[in-house]
């Protein structure tokens, strides 16, 4: 392998993105690699897009700067496929790996006509079936063993035994091994075309443009109330759905919604502001007649 | 035997604290230090360490509690970042002047305003003259090793001063790396049992602590602090020597990389030194004679040793992750110290300052290669035209006119209204 492999993870707050980056590093450490796993911290809110990174190397890693040109981009959440920064810096012969049951053509279309190496694994389904919990990281490790050859299935087996045996029973260990094995076997590889010689995929980095002397002094924000411009609705992993017949228009939901995403007119509940509702579920929790339920966003998206 | 573990920087330090098993830890969580307090509190809750863990209501109280505990004869530790360190301010000086060997890991983070949680060195650099020993760590391993050594340094009979051990916020604190954790017994044998010089709880020998002290004695007591700081250098090396003998990892006052035959050298603290090493290797492959010096101990400042290590180069670049506002050229504190040291020890070569990475702004090997390019030109010309460069700040030239600068809300940004 090359001297160092760099990986970027994409997911949403609460999906275990940071844990995934760390798990891979730990597994690789046991296979003899020097490792680094670190998150990109911003406002950490449930459902917000989050990135994390893993570096693996045969020699000590002294580099402490962010990963700019990853060899692998791993996407834990399908709803992020439309994010234009997904492919940022991905090496021409790098791999895009997505936790998805969708057909490859569909994924390629959603990622702006991506032509390079692609691998798909329905890690969520495997996790739900085998581990009975939504922990897609474990089957993904199996897929990565297959794709990269960084470590073998035996290495992973040893690692999982080592880490889980002490804390959990043999059942848990066996389920995890099964999840890894299925990830290894079920990963769907769609090679596409590498484009050697082509420069890494670049994305215009908007925003950071003003020279220092043109910024308002003291960190003032001039367009107060600009929260409307932030589509926090994109962070949603669950969305509220109302049963109108049950609604008594008490407006508890309106009172409690932290994002002012309940639409009201003339004292009547009208629905949700989809652009800003981030799916926190507070409205569903406080609604006295239980008129609101939370539905997984990916199911809604898949149905569209 | 010890073992390799995959740990975040904060977890590595929490492990060190568990192995040191201080009598008292009083701390208040603050990003990005939280992992230290959280992990250590877990060790306490799980009964893995018998430390008296005090959850206080602020950092001011955290350090105050440590001062009280240390005066009572306990081995006391805390940890903080940024605003937390700022809130400890008045107690920093008290811990140092009362000569209490408190050890405090500091996870470097920018100071408000504007609010920022990411790495720069403004917090600990602001505390550089408070009378604490300051040690900076490049990665999780160094943070672990330095925390262990800090206890011995602080309690050294020639020293008895509080010690801060720094690591870079997020870059080191939240990155998982391979860390060699030593055996508990070996660590215990290394740090030893604390022998307080005198304690508040010794009923055989009642003492008054923290008394009033005017122009008749205050100055002499400050002279004590000077002497302790002066002797700390040797104690730090002595402790490092014992650490190397036991654990095999060697530390000094600073570390050099490919410096022996270098024409230009870069001086930089903490994690950026690791990134700079990659830049040095890249340029060495092109035949450039560039080298690196990473100070480990910043207080006491090893002025003479640093200058001797750099005497053969033709130009020096000093990278600062903080600004000493209003100081000469509005440069960084490390640069100011380096200039003073060079003057004091008769080294008359160009020494340029590169302020970088404020508020967590990335610094990459290619930017550091740019700095080396600048330094090569400076070495060539034998003089500096721009003493301080703010690396990566947008719009460095041309400078605004007084009229433009007086605009509190510049036109460009309100054009949309
Ligand atoms: S889930 Fe409900 S409470 Fe939460 S943001 Fe959406 S509408 Fe508001
Ligand atoms: S809290 Fe429930 S019942 Fe009340 S207005 Fe909202 S949806 Fe209707």
TrEMBL record, chain A:
- EC number(s) on record? 1.2.7.1
Record keywords: Oxidoreductase included? yes
Task: Keyword check for Oxidoreductase, yes or no.
Answer: yes
InterPro entries listed in its UniProt record: 4Fe4S_Fe-S-bd (IPR017896), 4Fe4S_Fe_S_CS (IPR017900), Oxidoreductase_gamma_subunit (IPR051626), PorC_KorC (IPR011894), PorD_KorD (IPR011898), Pyrv/ketoisovalerate_OxRed_cat (IPR019752), Pyrv_flavodox_OxRed_cen (IPR002869)
Any one Gene Ontology molecular-function term assigned to this protein's record: metal ion binding
| Top-level lineage group | Bacteria
Q: Where is the signal peptide?
A: none
Q: Which residues form the 4Fe-4S ferredoxin-type domain?
A: 238-267, 268-297
**Which UniProt keywords are given for this protein, alphabetically ordered?**
Iron, Iron-sulfur, Metal-binding, Oxidoreductase, Pyruvate
Q: Which PANTHER family match?
A: PYRUVATE SYNTHASE SUBUNIT PORC
Instruction: Report the protein name in the record.
Output: Pyruvate synthase subunit PorC
UniProtKB/TrEMBL annotation, chain B:
Query: What's a GO biological-process term for it?
Result: response to oxidative stress
EC number(s) stated in the UniProt entry for this protein: 1.2.7.1
| Enzyme superclass (EC) | oxidoreductase
User: Where is the Pyruvate:ferredoxin oxidoreductase core domain positioned along the sequence?
Assistant: 262-368
User: Could you give a GO molecular-function term held by this entry?
Assistant: pyruvate synthase activity
Per the similarity annotation, which family is this? Belongs to the pyruvate:ferredoxin/flavodoxin oxidoreductase family.
Name the record gives this protein: Pyruvate synthase subunit PorA
């Amino acid at each position: 392998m090359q001297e160092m492999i760099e990986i970027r993870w994409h997911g949403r707050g609460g999906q275990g993105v940071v844990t995934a980056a760390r798990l891979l590093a730990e597994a690789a450490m046991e296979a003899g690699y020097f490792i680094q796993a670190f998150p990109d911290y911003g406002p950490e809110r449930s459902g917000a897009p989050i990135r994390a990174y893993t570096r693996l190397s045969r020699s000590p890693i002294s580099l402490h700067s962010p990963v700019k040109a990853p060899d692998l981009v791993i996407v834990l959440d399908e709803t992020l496929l439309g994010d234009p920064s997904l492919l940022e810096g991905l090496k021409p012969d790098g791999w895009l790996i997505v936790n998805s049951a969708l057909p490859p053509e569909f994924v390629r279309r959603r990622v702006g006509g991506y032509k390079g190496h692609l691998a798909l694994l329905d890690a969520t389904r495997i996790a739900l079936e085998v581990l009975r919990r939504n922990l897609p990281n474990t089957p993904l490790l199996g897929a990565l063993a297959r794709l990269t050859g960084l470590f073998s299935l035996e290495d992973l087996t040893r690692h999982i035994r080592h880490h889980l045996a002490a804390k959990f029973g043999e059942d848990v260990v066996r389920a995890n091994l099964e999840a890894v094995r299925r990830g290894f076997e079920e990963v769907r590889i769609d090679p596409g075309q590498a484009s050697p010689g082509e420069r890494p995929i670049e994305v215009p980095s908007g925003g950071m443009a003003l020279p220092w002397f043109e910024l308002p002094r003291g960190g003032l924000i001039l367009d107060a109330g600009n929260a409307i411009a932030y589509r926090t609705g994109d962070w949603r992993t669950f969305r509220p759905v109302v049963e109108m017949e049950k609604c008594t228009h008490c407006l508890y939901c309106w009172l409690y919604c932290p994002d002012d995403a309940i639409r009201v007119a003339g004292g009547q509940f009208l629905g949700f502001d989809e652009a800003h509702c981030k799916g926190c579920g507070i409205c569903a929790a406080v609604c006295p007649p239980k008129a609101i339920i939370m539905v997984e966003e990916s199911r809604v998206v898949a149905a569209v | 035997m010890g073992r390799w573990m995959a740990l975040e920087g904060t977890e590595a330090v929490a492990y060190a604290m568990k192995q040191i098993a201080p009598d008292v830890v009083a701390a208040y969580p603050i990003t990005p230090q939280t992992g230290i307090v959280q992990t250590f509190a877990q060790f306490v809750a799980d009964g893995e360490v018998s430390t008296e863990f005090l959850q206080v209501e602020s950092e001011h109280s955290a350090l105050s509690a440590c001062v009280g505990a240390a005066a009572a004869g306990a081995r006391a530790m805390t940890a903080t970042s940024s605003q937390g360190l700022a809130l400890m301010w008045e107690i920093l000086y008290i811990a140092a002047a009362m000569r209490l060997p408190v050890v405090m890991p500091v996870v470097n983070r920018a100071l408000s305003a504007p609010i920022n949680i990411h790495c720069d060195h403004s917090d600990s650099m602001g505390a550089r003259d408070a009378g604490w020993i300051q040690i900076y760590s490049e990665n999780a391993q160094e943070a672990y090793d330095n925390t262990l050594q800090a206890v011995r340094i602080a309690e050294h009979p020639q020293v008895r001063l509080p010690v801060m051990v720094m690591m870079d916020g997020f870059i080191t604190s939240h990155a998982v790396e391979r860390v060699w954790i030593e055996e508990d017994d070996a660590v215990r044998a290394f740090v030893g049992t604390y022998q307080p010089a005198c304690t508040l709880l010794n009923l055989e020998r009642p003492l008054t602590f923290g008394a009033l002290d005017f122009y008749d004695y205050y100055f002499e007591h400050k002279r004590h602090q000077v002497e302790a700081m002066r002797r700390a250098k040797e104690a730090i090396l002595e402790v490092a020597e014992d650490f190397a003998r036991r654990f095999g990892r060697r530390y000094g006052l600073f570390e050099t990389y490919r410096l022996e035959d270098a024409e230009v050298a870069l001086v930089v603290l903490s994690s950026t030194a690791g990134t700079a090493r990659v830049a040095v290797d890249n340029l060495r492959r092109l035949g450039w004679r560039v080298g690196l010096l990473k100070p480990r101990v910043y207080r006491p400042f090893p002025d003479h040793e640093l200058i001797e290590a750099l005497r053969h180069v033709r130009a020096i670049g000093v990278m600062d992750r903080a600004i000493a506002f209003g100081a000469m050229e509005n440069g960084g504190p490390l640069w100011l110290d380096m200039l003073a040291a060079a003057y004091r020890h008769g080294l008359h070569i160009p020494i340029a300052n590169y302020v970088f990475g404020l508020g967590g702004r990335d610094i990459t090997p290619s930017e550091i290669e740019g700095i080396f390019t600048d330094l090569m030109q400076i070495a060539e010309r034998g003089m500096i035209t721009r003493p301080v460069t703010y690396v990566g700040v947008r719009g460095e030239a041309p400078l605004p006119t007084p009229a433009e600068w007086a605009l509190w809300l510049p036109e460009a940004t309100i054009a949309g209204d």
